[in-house]
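Encoded backbone
================
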Amino acid sequence: MPPRAAMLLAAGLGLRMRPLTAHTAKALLPLGGRPLLDHALDRLDAAGVQTVVVNTHWQAERIAAHLATRPQGRLRIVARGEGTLLDTGGAVRAALGELGAAPFFIVNGDTFWLDGPVPALRRLADAWSGAADAVLLVHRSFQVQGGPDSGDFALDQLGHVRRRSEGEIVPYVYAGVQLAAPALFAGLPEGPFSVNCCWDRAIAAGRLRAVVHDGLWFHLSTPPDLAEAESNLQARAVGDGR
């Protein structure tokens, strides 16, 4: 059965995207005529997800108000405000009761991708195995304009993940999407922490896998990144005759 729950991370301050985020949450910035978080929610809806927990902090009221305008369909959206930023791992840890006991998607609210022949979320679900605590979506570093030059991860032939060593250049960057089991966060205390510490535990136990994205993915860190992505999408629309 496809995953039925997801966490959408939308609480960040978006400091590197200023001045665009001085009065707007990064997840609400428009791309292709729609806020970034709506693109992610649409993909989760299409994948069969039924419940999405959206954590908020900066401009929480504006995010909640926007979510309230989405049409009432099969996707149930739960806005979860954070008085104190919990970081990526702490936010998911705090929402485990709402996410359930089965594996669930975790999507960065500012990530944007275009699917290849098979939707990326379906590919993550197809790659799921009880031998993993999480499956990450990664993208080829050389295809990411403005992304980290050294990459984030290397993979073996079975998709096992390892981090790059000091001075090493590795071929993949994290694409902001993963499928995780509650076990990824087992035993961790409440409070702020990065999901990176969860990944490090899983890597050490041989329980972190990855799938290489076969579509387009956009690195959206700064205003020029967003402008470049917008230009790319407009050029594709013209090329498609739209």
